[in-house]
Write a structure and sequence with these properties.
With about 240 residues, the chain is mainly alpha-helical. The chain contains 11 helices and 2 strands; from the N terminus they run ααααββααααααα.
């Protein structure tokens, strides 16, 4: 883009877009007006550059470029594309093909109005993240492959709630020998998984901490609302 075209964009087109977007373009989903203004400026810059390369920039007024940029924004086009298949795309939502909802959207309310249920309460659960479960299983399988047959039996029996003596009877060795196998397994586990393995096992994932915090905050708000309502009833 030449300096002249850049000046036209900055002085003639950008003010028109920045002034019109807040009043004429609807935000879709999580969009905000400033984001739409940036999208419009990017689209206008591409249009100016294309017209200049075609030698037609002097035949189109800055007002026309700003106008067509605003029409593109109204139709759902954005600087990163105009997909009608992507469920998160603005054009898809404007076509009513998809609809986005906030996790904090209220989906139900108690009869007294003291307790509300948000969307995150309906679809959330207290189970571990499937990705974490799968990663842990892969690590555990790799660790078991490094153990001997007797060591695998020790892990199997202990996981089933049995004792080392049960393993000793199974393989025909003494209890002291099984204690040495137990120490070997512990050393191998420490070497394979690292010193922080126990802390990692008990550490809660970040998404669960955030969800629990939000639930506690909502419970506190409901409790304060209930106390305030009771005080108002008593005062009357």
């Amino acid at each position: 883009m030449s300096p002249q075209a850049g000046w036209i964009l900055q002085e003639e087109i950008v003010p028109r877009i920045a002034g019109a977007v807040p009043h004429s373009i609807l935000c879709v989903g999580a969009e905000d007006r400033q984001e739409l203004v940036c999208d419009g400026i990017t689209m206008a810059a591409k249009m100016v550059d294309r017209l200049e390369q075609q030698g037609k920039l002097d035949k189109v007024t800055p007002g026309n470029i700003a106008y067509y940029t605003l029409q593109h924004l109204k139709s759902g086009r954005r600087a990163n594309g105009s997909s009608t298949v992507d469920v998160m795309a603005s054009r898809t939502q404007l076509n009513s093909s998809t609809r986005l909802h906030s996790f904090n959207e209220i989906v139900a309310e108690s009869e007294c109005g003291f307790e509300i249920f948000e969307l995150q309460d309906v679809i959330s659960n207290d189970h571990e993240d499937p990705g974490t479960i799968a990663a842990r299983k892969l690590d555990w399988d790799r660790f078991l492959d490094q153990l001997s047959h007797i060591e695998q039996l020790v892990v199997e029996f202990l996981s089933a709630g049995k004792t080392l003596r049960d393993v000793a009877r199974k393989v025909g060795v003494s209890d002291s020998t099984m204690q040495s196998y137990r120490r070997k397994i512990a050393a191998k586990a420490l070497e394979f998984m690292g010193a922080e393995v126990l802390a990692d096992i008990v550490r809660e994932p970040g998404w669960r901490i955030n969800l629990d915090t939000e639930r506690e905050a909502q419970a506190c708000r409901n409790e304060r609302r209930t106390v305030a309502t009771v005080n108002i009833i008593r005062s009357n």
